[in-house]
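Continuing from the previous page of notes. For each protein in this section, the sequence appears first, followed by its C-alpha cells. Read the first protein now.
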Amino acid sequence: MAKLTDFKVLTFDCYGTLIDWERGIIEGLKPLTKQIGQELSRNAILETYASHEAFQQQLNPAKPYREILAIVYQELAAQFGVAVTRDECLRFGHTIPKWPAFHDSAGALQYLKKHYKLMVLTNIDNESFSASNEKLQVEFDAIYTAEDIGSYKPSLLNFEHLFRSLERSGIKKEEVLHVAESMFHDHEPANKCGLASCRIYRRFDQSGFGATLKPNEMPTFDFQFNSMADLVRAHHEELRS
C-alpha cells in the first residue's frame, strides 16, 4: 500500500483543489443569474456551467481560460434567455483574480514545500494564475498552464507535457503524486496515464460533481482527504510512525 512519504513531487490541480472556484463562479455569475425568471439551485448553476465550459475547452483548446469564460457567460445567457453585452461577458472572464483560496491551502502548501517539490498542472491562463498564486503564498517549482500547453485537461496532452518536463528534470513518474479534486479533469486521465493520485474531496458534504462533468468511467485514486489540512495531518502522522 502506497504511503504519502513514498513520493518526491506533488503536482496540483489548482481550481477546485486550492482555489475555491465554485464560490468564485457563483459570485461571478450573479449579474446573470439574478436576471433569470426562475430560481436555480447552486448545483444546477454549476452543472450547467460545467457542460458549457467543457464543450468550449474542447472546441477552443488554444484560447486562454479567461476568454473561455467570456464565451461560457454568453452561452449561459442565451440558454437562460437573458440579454448581455460583450463587456459583461468579458467582465466574467476577468473575475478569476477575485476567486478565493480555500482557507487551508496556503498553510498546507507551505508545510508540504518542506517535504516535496510542488508543481501545478492547471486549466488556466498565465495571467489569471499569477493572481491566484499570490493567494497561495508559496513558490511552486514548476507551473504548467493550459495556455502554455495549448490544450485543456482532461486531454492527455496536458499530462504528457508534464511527464516530458519531469523526465528532463530527472524525475520519474513513480515519484509523483497528483493532487486534485476533479474526477473528470484529473483523476480519470491520471488513471489512463498510470499516475498515482490523491483526491481532495472538497465537495464531500454535497451531491453531484458541481462545476465539473461526471467522468466517463469512475476513476480510482491512491489517497482521499476532505481537505488539504487533512492531507497535511496524514503526512505528519506518517513521519511520526
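Done with the first. The second protein uses the same format. Note its length before scrolling.
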Amino acid sequence: MKDLILITGSVMTADNDSVERYEKLISMIDAEKYDVSSPLDTMKFQGTDEERFDRAISMLENASLIIAEMSSVSTGQGIELGIAYTMNIPVLVIAKEGSKVSGLVKGCKTVKDVLYYDNIEDIKEKLDKFIGEENEKHSNNRR
C-alpha cells in the first residue's frame, strides 16, 4: 500500500492559477510510490458540508505528510493544519513569493519548512528531499 501525500490549499477561492499550481504539484510527486489527494479532488467532491468535513478528516487520518500550498488564504486549510498538528503529521508549507503565511502556521511544530517560490517548479528538488526524508522517518516508525 502506498503512503498518502495530502496537498492542501484554497478551494473556495481557487482560480485558474491555483488549479495550475495544484496540477504542477501533483505532477512533481512520484505516483508510482505515493497516492496523492489534492484540492482538485475536493473541488470534484459533491457531498454535504458534513460529508466534506468527514472526508477531510479521513484524508488526514491516512496521510503520511502534508504539502500546504498557502499562496491564498483559506480558513478550511487552517482547520486542516490544526487537526494535522494534533495528529503529528509533518507539513511542508509552500507559497508564492509575496504571500502572507500566518505566524501561527510558521510557528507550528509540525511545520518542517516554509518555502517561497517565484515559479513552483523551482521547489521540486526541495519537495523531493522533504518527501524522501519524511517517508524514511515514517517507514522507520512503522518498524
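What the second structure shows: The domain at 3-142 is CATH 3.40.50.450 (Rossmann fold). The beta strands are 3-8, 34-37, 63-69, 91-96, 111-117. We return to this in next week's lecture.
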